[in-house]
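lol forgot to send this yesterday, sorry. struct tokens for the thing we talked abt
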């Protein structure tokens, strides 16, 4: 049997994958071997884990290809699998692939649970040890140096990753608020802004580029995740929505300010000590049904951002 463990991740989001990296590392350390990760393509696991010393390979988890997935992993003869899901389908894939020991969440138990805490508890119970839950992304130092040179990133400016994007309008603070925020910051410090947005966010990027900030901005919209990571690693601060860019930034140890409008802040804002959060006025935590994008205090965000940057 292959002593390398298979780690199966069902979650679709980049942020979910990043939060789970700490668990991947804990498993690798416990078996004293690299692991193979089976994850959906949308997580960008192959890019994010490209230089991870604890990961041997990333295999694409096809959404519908039950038999195809089994075919991909059966000949690798894994001895054990760790499944970060309560899915019966993934359990059957593991068993039909000949994996002797399969560990996973109790079937149909995950709904309504805290994503971060559930994963941490599962790993600690399975490995019978406490884990360091602060996920870390590893990257190639030469690529980081090249990014700094290419984009003229230095400590003489405040280099800020601006998370204006999100998976839907209800999760985004208004773009005009962000432009106003960054104009205020730029008035106080020499700045360079890296606009963390994808190809679907061109309208948002266009608004920023049409503002007074345009000469200070570089957009990620035409880049791959692996192209942006060495740039993000060269910055000092992330300010923006709860999105995949936020979690990548935090895992690269940037001081990170997350604005929660519609997603659970206690699940996605507590997994690393360098994260600070702001939730809608009148709320202690943000939840899926909070609908608070118009209740985020501009003055509170500005005050917290200036405090973090200075």
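and heres what i got for the seq, position by position
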């Amino acid at each position: 049997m292959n002593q390398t463990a298979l780690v199966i991740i069902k979650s679709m989001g980049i942020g979910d994958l990043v939060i789970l990296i700490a668990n991947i590392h804990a498993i690798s350390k416990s078996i004293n071997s690299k692991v193979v990760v089976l994850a959906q393509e949308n997580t960008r696991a192959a890019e994010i884990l490209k230089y991870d010393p604890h990961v041997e390979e990333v295999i694409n988890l096809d959404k519908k290809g039950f038999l195809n997935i089994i075919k991909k992993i059966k000949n690798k003869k894994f001895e054990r699998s760790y499944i970060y899901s309560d899915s019966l389908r993934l359990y059957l894939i593991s068993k039909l692939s000949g994996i002797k020991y399969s560990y996973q969440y109790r079937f149909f138990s995950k709904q309504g649970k805290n994503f971060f805490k559930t994963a941490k508890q599962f790993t600690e119970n399975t490995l019978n040890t406490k884990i360091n839950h602060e996920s870390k992304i590893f990257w190639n130092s030469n690529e980081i140096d090249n990014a700094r040179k290419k984009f003229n990133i230095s400590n003489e400016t405040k280099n800020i990753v601006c998370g204006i994007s999100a998976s839907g309008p209800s999760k985004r603070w208004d773009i005009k608020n962000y432009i106003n925020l960054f104009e205020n910051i730029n008035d106080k410090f020499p700045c360079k802004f890296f606009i963390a947005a994808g190809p679907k966010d061109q309208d948002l990027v266009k608004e920023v580029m049409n503002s007074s900030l345009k000469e200070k901005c570089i957009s990620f919209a035409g880049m791959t995740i692996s192209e942006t990571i060495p740039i993000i690693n060269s910055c000092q601060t992330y300010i923006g929505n709860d999105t995949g860019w936020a979690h990548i930034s935090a895992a690269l140890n940037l001081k990170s300010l997350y604005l929660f409008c519609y997603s659970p802040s206690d699940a996605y804002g507590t997994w690393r000590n360098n994260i600070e959060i702001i939730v809608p006025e009148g709320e202690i935590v943000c939840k899926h049904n909070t609908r608070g994008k118009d209740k985020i205090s501009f003055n509170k965000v500005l005050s917290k951002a200036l405090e973090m940057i200075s």
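The CA atoms of residues 179 and 208 lie 6 Å apart. anyway ping me if u want another try
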